[in-house]
Automatic annotation (TrEMBL):
This is Sec-independent protein translocase protein TatB. It is a single-pass membrane protein. GO terms for biological process: protein transport by the Tat complex. It comes from Roseateles oligotrophus. Part of the twin-arginine translocation (Tat) system that transports large folded proteins containing a characteristic twin-arginine motif in their signal peptide across membranes. Together with TatC, TatB is part of a receptor directly interacting with Tat signal peptides. TatB may form an oligomeric binding site that transiently accommodates folded Tat precursor proteins before their translocation. It holds the Pfam family TatA_B_E. Belongs to the TatB family. HAMAP family: TatB. The lineage of its organism: Bacteria, Pseudomonadati, Pseudomonadota, Betaproteobacteria, Burkholderiales.
Amino acid sequence: MLDFGFDKIALIGAVALVVLGPERLPRVARTVGHLLGKAQRYVADVKAEVNRSIELEELKKMKGGIEEAARDIGASVQQEINSASQVFEQTWGDASTGLDPDSSYAYEGGPLSSARSGYQAPKKNWRVKRSATPQWYKQRQGVRRYVQSGAARVARFRPPSAKV
């Protein structure tokens, strides 16, 4: 880039003082300073954008590598599961050959007897369990227990008519 030393800057300042004059030199110096500041900010923004794009490319490459490694691991795990399943099925088939499933555990009290007895879960009354608040407390606090229509509510709270 440009190499400005102190002697070159002093020479440019002296020439600018002679050409521009002492009245306009401060305003021109401020303008040049603002323009240099804008140029530096622009260069810094461009550098930051280039760095971000480089980092983005690196992250994309890293992501691709990680996805490939995950696929390889998934494939190896699936292969191991399949081989273990085949070994299990073969062992299970060898162990269960010659056994009668109805006679092995079908005695009374055995593990299969409860499945065949027709057991049903007890029915629970959900209305009883609906609330843990006692009815006397609800009545004292004025909580409505039954739904009433608007006309029934008006008739209930209407003052009794005076009979003459």
